[in-house]
Prior knowledge:
This protein is an all-alpha fold. It has helices at 2-13, 16-23, 26-29, 46-59, 72-81, 87-100, 104-110, 112-118, 125-142, 151-155, 162-173, 182-190, 199-209, 212-228. The chain is 58% helix and 0% strand. Helix 4 (46-59) packs across helix 14, helix 8 (112-118) crosses helix 9 (125-142) and helix 12 (182-190) crosses helix 13. The model is unreliable at 1-38 (pLDDT under 50).
Amino acid sequence: MGMGNMASKSAKRLEPEAALKRSKPKSARKLLAPAKSTKPSRPWTLAEVTEAFRRFRAANPEPRGELAHVNPYTLLVAVVLSAQATDAGVNKATPALFALADTPQKMVKLGEPRVRDLIKTIGLFRNKAKNVVALSERLVAEHGSQVPRTREALEALPGVGRKTANVVLNMAFGEPTIAVDTHIFRIGNRTGLAPGKTPFEVEQKLEAAIPDEFKRHAHHWLILHGRYVCVARKPLCEKCLINDLCKWSEKTVAA
């Protein structure tokens, strides 16, 4: 694909967390790694993990993702667009896009310049427009215009990495996958639930720690907890459902 395409291939394989490290200043990069002082005093027990997720389930039995979509295909597109962008920002741009193109065929027909214009309020919109059209072409040519239901096939699509594939598998097809974004990465390390140096390591530890009965919704419970309670700069420990179970040594409010 030439030098330009080699760069595009590299960008395709780059997970949002890694891309953020490359594109953001050092102050932003710090949010991706746990502080040295956050090392938990002891690991969680199975009883503690079970109790934590029991509380999440009691508070929100059927959690939902916040990305607007109308079918598995538009979900896939929305997740690709959400890399290094907020769900709210993506949701402002996609209604007009999905009104014109809610299938791979329609997106291909719409074309990259028009897609680019429709999503220009989203960060990295030029590369994302290219990936959206390219993955749509691949879906038409190789998957009968359907979103594939395996991680390997999803990750082979332009602009799709492991996190995106896991989100689609979970939200579109009900698979018990856990997509580790910056929120879940932070929670896994801060609370001591699943400490790890990489998103993949945190994902593997969560998979091993969380009982099967909670895995279907664990992804959303943790993201919502990280987005609205266990936030990066000033966590709201006074509102935390699992304050007494959390192993973080720097809680803003004692359990």
